[in-house]
Structure formats: structure tokens, C-alpha cells
Design goal:
This protein is of the alpha+beta class. It has a domain at 26-102 and 115-119. It is 24% helix and 35% strand. The protein has four helices and four strands, in the order H-E-H-E-H-H-E-E. The protein has helices at residues 2-8, 49-56, 71-74, 81-90, and strands at 31-37, 57-68, 94-106, 109-118. A four-stranded mixed beta sheet has the order 1-2-4-3. Helix 2 links the parallel strand 1 (31-37) and strand 2 (57-68). The radius of gyration is 15 Å and the shape is globular. The N and C termini lie far apart (32 Å).
Length: 119
């Protein structure tokens, strides 16, 4: 996918990092908006990856995570996702803009969209 990305010429900076490990090559406060679609599932981005998302998003910027709602109940790590967001809000890292459930998001499964603003 990175090779395909490079051929478009749209992006000038490309990073290949694991979120949740510090994403050290990605500069802090680099993005106005971070969108994660399909990354929050078993074996992909861990909860600690949200910390990296916050670090690379500018204060006032948005983090939008789109995922299947069933993962909040079926994937052990994501059973605590909403509590993790609550704890980050209590620490003053971000604030909730909206949490929206989406019927029939993909293949008859409902989805959920988390939108948070970085503080």
C-alpha cells in the first residue's frame, strides 16, 4: 500500500509505524485530523495506539475512529475502549465531540464512529 500511496504524488510524507509503540518517526502535533477506519479490530491497533493518535494530532484537531460496534463486546481489548476514552478525558487529553452508531455499517453489521477533539 505504501508503494501505491507514493505513486499518487498526493502525500509528501509517508510513515510506516505501529501505533501503540510510540510511533516515534511521526512528529508530534502534525495533523489537524486523524481518521482510523478498519484499524480497531483484534490484532491490529491496541488501546495504547490512541495515545499515539493524540500525540500526532494538533491541539484542537479531531480523532475519528470508525469500527464495527460488535468489537466493543467481542474483542477483549476493546471491551474497555469507551472507559479508556473516559480516562483520557479525565486526564484532559481530549474531549468527546460525538459517538454515533451506524446501522448496517458493513456486511449487515452495525458500526460506531467515535469523534474526539484533542486538547
Amino acid at each position: 500500500m505504501m508503494k501505491l500511496l507514493e505513486t499518487t504524488g498526493v502525500y509528501t510524507k509517508n510513515y510506516s509505524e505501529f501505533l501503540g509503540d510510540g510511533a516515534n518517526s511521526v512528529p508530534s502535533d502534525a495533523y489537524d485530523v486523524l481518521v482510523c477506519s478498519g484499524g480497531m479490530m483484534e490484532g491490529h491497533i491496541p488501546l495504547k495506539g490512541i495515545d499515539d493518535m493524540i500525540r500526532v494530532t494538533k491541539p484542537g484537531g479531531l480523532i475519528i475512529i470508525v469500527m464495527r460496534a460488535e468489537f466493543l463486546h467481542e474483542v477483549e481489548e476493546f471491551k474497555g475502549l469507551e472507559h479508556y476514552f473516559d480516562s483520557l478525558q479525565e486526564k484532559g487529553c481530549l474531549t468527546k465531540v460525538e459517538v454515533k452508531r451506524v446501522p448496517n455499517y458493513v456486511t449487515g453489521k452495525d458500526g460506531i464512529i467515535f469523534t474526539y477533539r484533542v486538547l
